[in-house]
Fold these 2 entries.
Entry 1:
Amino acid sequence: MEVKKRVQNLRVKENIRLNKRHFILELHSTESFPLMLPGQFVQVRVEDSPSTFLRRPFSIHSIDYTHQTLRLLIQVKGEGTRHLSGRQPGDTVNIVYPLGNSFSLPVTKEVLLVGGGCGVAPLLFLSQFLAQNHIRPVILLGFRTRDEVAELEEYARYGEVHVITDDGTQGEHGLVTDHSLFQRERLPFKKIYCCGPDAMMQSVAKIARMHKIDCEVSLENTMACGFGVCLCCVTPTDKGNERVCVEGPVFNINRLKW
Amino acid sequence: MPDLSVNIAGIPFKNPVTTASGTFGYGDEFSDFMDVGHLGGIFVKAVTGRNRDGNAYPRMAETASGMLNSVGLQNKGVDHFCREIYPRIRHFNTHIIVNVSGSTVEEYIEVAERINELDRIPAIELNISCPNVKQGGMAFGTIPAMATEVTAAVRRVYRKVLMVKLSPNVTSITDLARAVVDGGADVITLINTLLGMAIDAERRRPVLSTVTGGLSGPAIKPVALRMVWQVHKAVQVPVIGLGGIMNATDAIEFMLAGASAIQVGTANFIDPAASVKIIEGMNDYLVRHKIDSVANLTGALRTE
């Protein structure tokens, strides 16, 4: 069933500061939500300011259909995200959603989720979705440093959580691909879902290929529209340049030119 | 109720609001957000002779009040358009106008001939102004003699209304306008994007893979208004204006400057329903100013 995309004003219910660089916007809808899938994203209008002209894309962090709230995990990167970080409960946020494709439902129970930095955002929603389908994944989360480690108890509700930090201040020390989960001759996974910086996803893809594990990654190319008409966010695939906002953001690594 | 209809080179449009090529896909991408049948017309994504993969990513940079793009005419070619896309959109209750692009005069002719066969397409918009392709594109739109040549060549094979989209990246826009009218253009659309550039100082690199790209959005509106005004005074053919139109007031300004119709471009990215809101807003303006027909606005700027 094709879900209709819509433009809608949502109300900020909570703005939760996780650390210096990250916050969660919890948005409430007065209308019931359309069906949304893990990996999909929303396009947020920042404000009517010359310097934040375009919408900002954010993947859906989690959804509560009962209370009609959705959460966005946002990293403060530039003026747009800085402005959003100042939104208060009661403020309105205009979004276009739901956009993009989604992670596929695995045919196996041996699932690994790998997230790095702000790339962990869609993995909480994916964990919830997997739990509904009776799959309890292993979840490996990479952060820069201890101060940025957040929401572990949320993930732990849905899977077995492992942490690694760049500086070793919490969990193991190094990049996600340095984690002991990967330092085995045979990896006990049949499916890997990955989201994070390109370099990280490419390293994970390399491991997945080496071990012949099916792997999906979520890309975050810069985009203007978010619904397939500007053709700015393309990535080279086996079918030529494809739109990250429509054919993606989730791609099986076999389809990418990595 | 004021009359919103306009007639452009013999084609009746239900209103002067159309959507700009490259910002509206083939129209069906917007069906979740609006009834495209409300629009005066849709200028669909550029069609070239063969499949074009476009330029490498990154293709976009946000700028103050606008954005740069260097998409590079990505499309699957005229064959694919006629076979796959046209049947999907031909039933739209609005005019579909195809933006025709190419690298050579022969390619423009080839595409125009194919589109000429499609009964539901009343006009083409010859794109001699794309700044993002190495060959052809903007070169045809910056040298008057070449603009005349390519327009005349397409004029010989294309039987319906021939629109030509001009580039603002010229010293004298009126020279180019006269050149395409000499070549047989029925309508002039302007402006395409302004050539620009964005730099990432931290990395000391250009933001776009192509270094330069085309600037669009409200940042270019004053330039566009000036050029529409100059061209309207210089030639007899109708002008369709575009460049940074975000709302009905912007659209009215283009009509006053001399446009017979307008195109909404970059605004579609930010508010997918922008174009239909502009139709409503123009109607309100006419009511408020007690103007019977939107056509009366064209060139009605008072400069004395």
Entry 2:
Amino acid sequence: MSRRSIALAVVGILLVALPLFAGNYALSVATLILYFAYTGQAWNVMMGFAGQLSLGHALYVGVGAYAAGGLFFYYGIGPWAGLWLAIALCVALGLAIGFLAFRFGISGVYFALLTIAFAEFTRIGFDHFGWTGGPGGMFLRVAQRDTWDLANFRGPPLMYYYAMLALTALAFLACSLLLRSKAGYYWQAIRENEEAARALGINAFRWKLLAVAISAAMTAVAGVFFAFYYNNLFPEQIFNISRSIEIILGPVIGGVGTLFGPVLGAAVLTLLSDGITEALGAMGFDIPGVKQVFYGLVLLGVVMFLPHGIWPPIARRLRL
Amino acid sequence: MSVLLEVRGISKSFRGLRAVHDASFDIPEGDINALIGPNGAGKTTIFNMIAGVYAPDSGEIRFGGVPIQGLRADQVCAAGIGRTFQIVKPFAGLTVLDNVMVGAFLRERQASAARALATRIVERLGLGAKRDLPASSLTLPDRKRLEVARALATRPRLLLLDEVMAGLRPTECDLMVAVFRELNRADGTTILLIEHVMRAVMALAMHIGVLHHGEVIARGTPEQVVRDPAVLECYLGEEAEV
């Protein structure tokens, strides 16, 4: 076994055993970390692998959440069916955005602007649709919290933790397989130099669309989780651009294009920002916005001193 | 010998600037052909039209009897034409082997098969010792070799080489010449090269086309071309020693 797989196994065992010695609060923080690790991994497929910068991934979280949440709210249809609607809608949206951009040669920051635009006008639209509840929000029925109701994805925090752990592990595995496949090589070639990639027989348009579709589908699943975990959905919150930024901070700080980066970045950010809020609270301070300032400082430090993220130097040091 | 590539009267203008005018030539299968001419003669424009970077304004390009003008770059490559870039374009963040594997995936679905093919090609181009280094760490001669290796990994029937000798020292240049000769002899790969380095052209080319102001002014064997008065005047210069 390589050092890398041993490290992975150790982390995996620790995460599976975590509920044995963690209370509900620690579990909720861990769930949040895994949530950002997962969405970061999804975003990384598009940006880290294929080099297409999305600053509007909240779009897929929101549409996924409202698709599955709406089905449950209006028709009592559980998330296992809603999941497929969420994925289908998000893939369709991603393909539409990708088609518009790649067909007309929109790339780089202009592509990023397009992704923001779609997230923003979806937010405004959802604020005005009657069936979403508009700015007043949509509230899913909160049922028994002590038994595991897997069919309706209702249960104690432990269930959500393990669900998120399973998703994150699956995403990690899928991404590591993708990266080593033809798709991974083609995406990286497009990321590094699109013209050279085309000259090697790569239909860049098609492969970029595939990256967007996979990333959107993965993020849609996070949206479904979000809906059934938090039980309340507000367009203003879920589609907000700061949600999109939160998704990309993990991989940016951990290391764009790496498999461990999104996971490590999510853990570092969530733990530190929670820790700071806690510590300040204990000292009697309650400063609104301290989390944002903290994110800004960490980002500044990483960009200045570790432009490739914190994972690559760690990997070198530990020979992983 | 059958004709592999037929170029018939292609023209291309950029905003009124006539880059290539009514250029025609044939490349027989198994041949090594050179296209020479002064800077701005339209050599790279012709290359780009063959490789599908842009379509000719008029004229026809046939590859193996099938019209290919207007196809996209990736379709041209899939049809069996590999190319290198004059200004090298390595996938800087990937290793040498991974760079070549990207090309190998055109004909191989499985990563293991692509890796095997890429490894053979990397060895052949003399990059074996550097296969695990990032492409960004390579020197210019090695980057030129990497360009060739990547193009070869797509298993082309026709290889377009855009000034791969430029910037190489004479000994490095001779090594490249040996690689192309071997490639042509052993695999039967047809080669079309644009080149300024006459040392390489004379050593390699079986036929030469001379381009001037976007027009083909002479075609023939190297011996014929270097004695052509029109060529001497416009390009080689009267005192040229070959």
